[in-house]
């Protein structure tokens, strides 16, 4: 398959191949010359229909480090605003001899839809509340780097699970590697299908943290929120906000993750986000190596 549409389409061997390839690229981008010529003959379009800082820049940098030609498109400044459809937009871009499309879109299934309707390799950079596969890959890569292995580890994902593509992709990736996953958050922000994924719900943050090796803190996805769902922000922070006081009461040290963007003082305090247990910026750093690996492996299939 020449696409990365979601973690659910991968298997354990795929993940290990991506991580081993990312290990190599992480070593490469820490050299004085950070660039390799691997993708000199590949052209990639990054098309973003939703806002992004980390994912967009990380994909661009990964592609440039691999020597690909890169064009970037933001729907807000494009002819989508004049009524052009997704397929017409992408087919026009592809007629400029583009090989691969990295897309973020607000509709769940948009990347899959595109893969069925255009002739290019598609990478899902986040489709609505569905999947964000490269985020889950870089999260697992970071856990593996910090704790040696993902298998057997206990990971709690805290926050707005209902609207989170990061949560769903992480659940698939972590379970595939033999980790145990729980979620913690207000009942209104936990999807009804969570049991069917084999994921337990813990409503008490302190108990969840006592249980876990890693806590992945998510922001509330206000842009996808029906206000009637939600406790107010102050109540949320009181019940589910991570503070240094809570961490100090634990009988152990845990790894703190967050995919970003952070709402400081809501789901996590500044001292925890910037503290010694936080790997938040390691996640961002690892994102470049992991995306290099994904693009390199997909491009190898295009070329062969
Ligand atoms: N983690 C993540 O996807 O961040 P961006 O929305 O800034 O890309």
Topology (SSEs and partners):
Layout: H1 12-28, E1 43-48, H2 54-65, E2 69-74, H3 86-94, E3 100-105, H4 110-117, E4 121-127, H5 133-147, E5 154-158, H6 165-176, E6 180-184, E7 200-201, H7 205-211, E8 214-217, H8 233-240, H9 244-249, E9 255-257, H10 270-273, H11 280-303
Parallel strand pairs: 1-2, 1-3, 3-4, 5-6, 5-8, 6-7, 8-9
Residues 52-55, 126, 135, 259-261 line the site of phosphoric acid mono(formamide)ester.
Subunit structure: Heterododecamer (2C3:3R2) of six catalytic PyrB chains organized as two trimers (C3), and six regulatory PyrI chains organized as three dimers (R2).
Keywords: Pyrimidine biosynthesis, Transferase
Protein name: Aspartate carbamoyltransferase
Characterise this structure.
This protein is of the alpha/beta class and 304 residues long. Helices cover 40% and strands 14% of the residues. It is built from eleven helices and nine strands. The strands form two sheets. The protein has a five-stranded parallel β-sheet with strand order 7-6-5-8-9, with helices on both faces. Strand 1, helix 2 (54-65) and strand 2 form a beta-alpha-beta unit. The longest helix is centred in the C-terminal third of the chain and has 24 residues, at 280-303. Phosphoric acid mono(formamide)ester (CP) is lined by residues 52-55, 126, 135, 259-261.
Brief overview:
The protein is α/β, with parallel strands linked by helices and 304 residues long. The chain has helices spanning 12-28, 54-65, 86-94, 110-117, 133-147, 165-176, 205-211, 233-240, 244-249, 270-273, 280-303, and strands at residues 43-48, 69-74, 100-105, 121-127, 154-158, 180-184, 200-201, 214-217, 255-257. It has two domains: 7-131 and 287-303, 3-Layer(aba) Sandwich (Rossmann fold); 133-283, Rossmann fold.
